[in-house]
Amino acid sequence: MAMLASRVGVNETDLTRADVSTLGVEYGTVNPFIPASEQVEHVFDRDLVDGKEYPCDDIVFTSPGDPRFYVGFDVKRYVRAISQMTATMATVGISKKIEPEKQRVVARRPITILGGDSTGDTANFKKQVATSVTESLEKHDAYFGDRSLPIIDAKSDPAFAGSINTDLYGETLKDHVADVADELKNALAHEGPRPLVAFSSRAMDGVGGQMLRQVEGIEYIGSQEALAQILDALAKQNVGISRDILLGLPSAYDKERSAFAGSILDNALPVNVNVRRSIQEFVQDCKKEEGNPEKFYKNIVDTVLRQATKGQLDTLKNENIAVILGASELESFAGALEDYANTNEKIRATFAVIKSNDPTTIVAEVAKTPDKIRLILIQPGQAVADMIAQKTLGIET
Fold this sequence. Notes:
By secondary structure, the protein is of the alpha/beta class. The chain has 15 helices and twelve strands.
C-alpha cells in the first residue's frame, strides 16, 4: 500500500476501500472491461510484463463483471491497446525500477523436422534447433521463456529408416519424399509466415533435400545452405578455405545422393577406400562411446593430407582446411576431438584445431595460430540448426 500510494502521489492514509457499488459492480469484479472502467485509473505492476517469468505468466485472470465467469488477458497487449482509447491508464513500476522497454523478439516461423533413422535422432535434432533458437534470443537479450520459441513439429517417419543404406533403398526413399512433399503442400496455410523444413538425418538431407527445395511455399534448410553461409561469411572476412576434407558414411560421397553435393563434394580431398573404412569403424566406435581421437587424426585426417601432398605436410602450413564432420556420430564427438588436439603435443606441433561453426570465432582463432595447418572442425547438423534459428527469428546474417 505504501508503494502504491507513493507511485500515485498520495499519502498511504488517503487510500481507502472504494464503494464499488457506485460503479454498478461487486467486489472482485472490477476489471478493465466493464463500462465503468473509464471512471477508474488502472494501475498495473510492471513486474507483470517485465518479470523474469514473462511471458510464461503474462496472462492475468479477472472477472468480466459477472461473478459466474472469468476472463484471461495479456496485460502488455491490453495496455498497448488501451493507450489508443479514452480510458485513463497508468502503468507504474511498483516492484522494480522503471527501465526502457526492451523489444520482444518472438520466433514465429513454424519449423518441421522430418525424421531419418530413428525417433531418437528426430527428438535430439528438435532439441538442438530449440537450443539454437533460445541461444539466439538470449544473445539479443530477448528470451522471455518457452513461449518465445517457435512451433517445432518433429515427425519421425518409419519409411525413412531406409536411409541407413541409400544405395539399396535410395529410389524407395525418393518416392516417399515425393509423398511427403505433397503432404507439405496440402498442409500449407494460405496466409502466415513461410514454414522452415529440414531433415534430422544427413543421409535423408542428401536423398530428399533437392526435392523439397522445389516445394513452393516452404523454405528447405539443408547442409548445402548452412555450409555455404559459413564459407561465404569467412570469405567476406578474408579467411579462405584452401581445401576441405569430407568425412561421412558412403552416401556422403555419392554425387547423386550426397547432402554435400556441389562445391563441398567437388572440392573435397580424395578419400580412398581404406580411409572410408576407417571412418565407418570410427563412427561405430562413437556410437558405442568408444571413439579414439588418436585414430581419428592418425588413420583418417593425417592419411588424407599425406596422400594429397604426397607426404609433404609442410606445404600446408598457414592454410585453412575445413574438416566436414558429415555424420551425427562424428559431430557429437567433435568436443573430444578438439580437447585431444589441444593437449597432445604431437598434434599441437603440426595442427591448430578449431571446433566452431561461427565465422567470427574462426577468424579470431585463425589469427592466433600462424604457421600451422589449421583444421576447422565444421558440424553440418549444428549449422543447419543455427541457420533455422536465424531464419525463424529474422536475424539471418
